[in-house]
């Protein structure tokens, strides 16, 4: 007998230890003191338990392990794409972890394109293309699995659709 969406979500919740409602992914130097800070504040004020790395990780804690654990313990992820997002190896690794989780359990992904066109994300052109040209030079030995994994995750998340914010 097939499970309904509600039964799947319920069984995911019982299988997964969800300590957070939302995992907030963003490039700090681009959006921390702008959109992301306002979004985080609004989520917290609404009573939504949100993971943001600078608030939730303890000094001395392994960032990669702490972040991976937080992704696994979150019901959904909001990814804020900004102009410099693709230049951050860390952001791209985090994105791959989020997309892997979304394929294995009931984990919703909500992309937000902050002054970035979604096609720039999916096609990795413009600023995203420039960042990947640099990554391909630096990660020449890891091209096959790392850079291609980043590209695939960006295409996958851009296909989800999301919210497009543009400065006027």
UniProtKB/TrEMBL annotation:
Domain TIR: 18-168
Pfam families recorded: TIR
Annotated SUPFAM superfamilies: Toll/Interleukin receptor TIR domain
Keyword NAD appears in the UniProt entry: yes
Key words, A-Z: NAD
Name of protein: TIR domain-containing protein
């Amino acid at each position: 007998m097939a499970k309904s969406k509600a039964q799947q979500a319920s069984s995911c919740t019982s299988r997964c230890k969800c300590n957070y409602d939302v995992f907030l992914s963003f490039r700090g130097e681009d959006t921390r003191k702008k959109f992301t800070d306002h979004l985080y504040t609004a989520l917290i004020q609404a009573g939504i338990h949100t993971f943001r790395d600078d608030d939730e990780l303890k000094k001395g804690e392994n960032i990669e392990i702490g972040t991976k654990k937080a992704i696994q313990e979150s019901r959904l992820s909001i990814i804020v794409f900004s102009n410099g997002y693709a230049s951050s190896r860390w952001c791209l690794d985090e994105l791959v972890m989020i997309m892997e989780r979304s394929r294995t359990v009931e984990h919703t992904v909500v992309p937000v394109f902050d002054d970035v066109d979604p096609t720039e994300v999916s096609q990795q052109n413009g600023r995203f293309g420039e960042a990947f040209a640099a990554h391909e030079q630096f990660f020449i030995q890891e091209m096959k699995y790392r850079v291609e994994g980043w590209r695939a995750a960006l295409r996958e998340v851009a296909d989800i659709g999301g919210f497009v914010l543009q400065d006027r």
